[in-house]
Design a protein that fits this description.
The structure is a homodimer. Chain A is about 40% helix and about 10% strand. The first copy, chain A, is α/β, with parallel strands linked by helices. The longest helix of chain A is centred in the C-terminal third of the chain and has 30 residues. A seven-stranded mixed beta sheet of chain A has the order 2-8-7-6-5-3-4, sandwiched between helices. Chain A has a two-stranded parallel sheet with strand order 1-11. Chain A is built from 17 helices and eleven strands. The interface between A and B is large, with 127 and 127 residues.
Chain lengths: ~475, ~475
């Protein structure tokens, strides 16, 4: 699970507060328990150790066996050297400073295509990037997204509608909104998530007071999602009284790197319809597919191609500028697309968006740039293709090298990364290591990852393997 | 309440969904009731009418008595023509496209100060704005914020600590986080908010399942906050069983425009300590003070100057790049500062931030630019001062003109805007108007605002007057 990724670490070491102990109210004992229950990697002992090692590295006389820490616990491509696409950044610089468009040197500094796009965007906005946008996101960007989806999914199914699209601060913000609407406070709700999963989902379930109904991916079948496993998880959760009304599928997988085949997707869709569950499709790695025999198909495409049989499917799909070859994590761009969600629920999602005014406008423009590259035949397009293909082939090369390298190690086996930016190896520890972990009163996987970090400087996630 | 402001309107008119009616689960009847309960201006009949009028205006043969709609229902300065500060935008353009720093024409296009600042920021980040930052926000920006607070609040009290500062997507995101931590799901919580208030607070209270304990501002005393009124509201809420543990003060006021005096702030602080309530100080309008006899004092400054007497105060203050003379609403920059909050609660806030990875990096840099203008004596500083003073004097002039104009109208009285960007007039309607409203089955204030909109194109908020 440590491929071309790095970490968001909360590095600030809390200074001791003034010696005075507060007699007032807000204390650990009086805050929202759901926040405390939400687990997230940031508080794990591994990142505490990484923080400690980072401090030690600052001492030139440190005796650590490495010179640098590699944060592989979260997908953060640009922190590991992936470059942003030039066209996108040209347009965003011009959007920040429209006066550059008028400058006599502009033609030397920015491609014609970038100047044209920036002009189009600024004309569409009317008053620059410094005003709040429509809460749902700029309409002209939502139109670009709809065009992209229509082209991606094929012309033999209905075109996408900009009114079904909401622009968000990264995909996470959209997922949060949907779960806030779906999970009811006065019910014992359940949320189906894959095991292993991306911890955003377990954290949001905890914040929403829901229980997790985890379904196992089949490691022996390239991390496939089988309906039997879905049914087992669902039956178990319902037996325990959970009202399970939504299911998360991450495709391509995080952290498992698999890419689903359309026939498995069809089965998942039938299952969701049969069990009356909304399908939440996390499709943020749709551009990252490496396996020669796999390609990305959106759940929307698969469902619409199924025709009447899938007409009852309720689907929300999520995408982000943070992954793929765009890799703009820091700009926080993303969107979600609603499919078959009633208008009175859409109205509630609009209201929820309006409470927080709008997502950041630069992130919104970066979504437009992701889904609408420069026109073919232009110089900007040629540069874009070169940069895109360079990034994707580098990711693919590293994906192959990583799983091959891991499989050579004693006690480690690992599926190939078919997509996304991760592999999830199986590590079989010797009995002595397990005993040593027990002695330290930590789990064997924690023990292993702490040892890797101490000995190599490589910080990986580990808490997701069941 | 309609001064130099405009609206975030959700303009997308939902296309009808496919004729097929879903048999699956997600419907208005099965979503989270708390979302439905959260009221927000966006769904009010006034904005529906505005949307309708906007469509009518597109027809060149329309017979509306105005040519343009003025959205005055939310503070969105750049949508009404306020220009961004040049220095800030130069730095942000360079941060998007660092290659510009190397260009031979860079010196002609960007001031030396902007190039220096962009270089400093990019060096501090290391890998550009496209990677996730520390979840709490870039440390170097939090240091700039701490320096700003220390300088603002004076050197006779302790310096601010960057570890107490969290960078957020606008102030709203920070307020949401704090309330998510404070409001417990298994308690009947209460939140004290002013009447009239900014609707974010009532919406967040509803989402958190809390009841509002509204305290009245004293219109006859320039919208002052008196402890008697706080006590009345608190006693009433507690009598009804609410566990009231936090109180919001908006200073300068939104939508009432008042600026509190330090003696009133001291009384509020004593009240919060006595009643064991966290004080949430919304100080986003701290740069917007117009009254000659008033100046902004932060609650932090007032509390620290009180010394031992206020040592028990727990305080969180919020600031934003969206208001003041910065006015960068779309970039979604903001921060909050914790004061006297225990470290184990801070850890939970860090975890919550990490679940959503980080706030947008451009917004973070815009916070740095807001709190750290160009150095005095530089050309960039002279330009900055000119632009800043131009914006502030224009806002001040319009504030005066607005309340003077309103006070000349029959049946309308209005306090001067001492600060912020709003006035909140009192409109006494004739009996016939009230009867007409009753006939239309709407409240008299809705009736009045709808009439103003229909006759002048001016869209104001109205739902906040009790």
């Amino acid at each position: 699970m440590f491929h071309s990724t790095t970490a968001v670490l909360v590095l600030a070491i809390g200074a001791l507060f003034a010696a005075h102990t507060s007699a007032t109210d807000l204390s650990f004992d009086t805050i929202n328990n759901r926040v405390i229950d939400a687990e997230y990697a940031v508080r794990c002992p591994l990142l505490d150790l990484a923080k400690e090692l980072k401090e030690q590295l600052k001492d030139p006389n440190n005796d650590l066996p490495f010179d640098e820490l590699y944060f592989c616990n979260i997908g953060n491509p640009q922190a590991l050297g992936q470059k942003p696409l030039s066209f996108n950044r040209e347009v965003l610089a011009l959007a920040q400073m429209p006066s550059l468009l008028q400058d006599e040197n502009a033609a030397k500094l920015f491609s014609q295509e970038a100047r044209d796009r920036a002009t189009t965007y600024l004309d569409s906005i009317g008053h620059g990037v410094g005003a709040y946008s429509d809460s749902q996101g700029f309409k002209f960007i939502r139109e670009e997204v709809a065009n992209f989806i229509t082209a991606r999914d094929g012309s033999d199914i209905p075109a996408a509608d900009p009114n079904d699209i909401f622009l968000t601060d990264g995909a996470s913000a959209g997922i949060k909104s949907l779960l806030q609407v779906i999970l009811r406070d006065d019910h014992k709700e359940g949320l189906m998530v894959p095991i292993p999963q991306y911890p955003l989902y377990s954290a949001l379930a905890a914040l929403g007071g829901a229980t997790l109904a985890g379904y196992y991916l089949d490691e022996d079948s390239r991390w496939a999602t089988y309906v039997e496993s879905l049914q087992t998880a669902l039956d178990e959760a319902r037996k325990e009284g959970a009202d399970v009304r939504a299911m998360v599928v991450i495709n391509p997988g995080n952290p498992t790197g698999q890419c689903l085949t359309p026939d498995l997707q069809e089965e998942i869709i039938r299952f969701c319809i049969k069990e009356k569950m909304v399908l939440l499709a996390d499709e943020v790695y749709q551009e990252n597919v490496y396996a020669a025999d796999r390609e990305f198909h959106s759940f929307r495409q698969v469902a619409l191609k199924m025709g009447e049989e899938a007409a009852d499917l309720q689907l929300v799909s999520f995408h982000s500028t943070s992954k793929g070859f765009t890799g703009e994590c820091g700009l926080r761009g993303g969107y979600y697309q609603l499919h078959n969600i009633p208008q009175d629920v859409v109205a509630q999602l609009k209201k929820l968006a309006s409470i927080f005014l709008c997502s950041n406008t630069i992130g919104q423009l970066s979504v437009g740039l992701m889904v609408h590259p420069p026109e073919e035949g232009t110089a900007a397009h040629a540069e874009y293709v070169e940069q895109r293909d360079g990034i994707l082939s580098s990711l693919s090369r590293r994906a192959t090298a990583l799983s091959a390298g891991l499989n050579k190690l004693e006690g480690i086996t690992c599926n190939d990364a078919e997509g996304a930016m991760y592999v999830f190896p199986q590590v079989r520890l010797p009995t002595a290591a397990i005993a040593a972990a027990e002695k330290e009163n930590i789990s064997p996987d924690t023990f292993y990852c702490m040892s890797v970090l101490r000995n190599t400087g490589m910080c990986q996630n580990f808490s997701q393997r069941p």
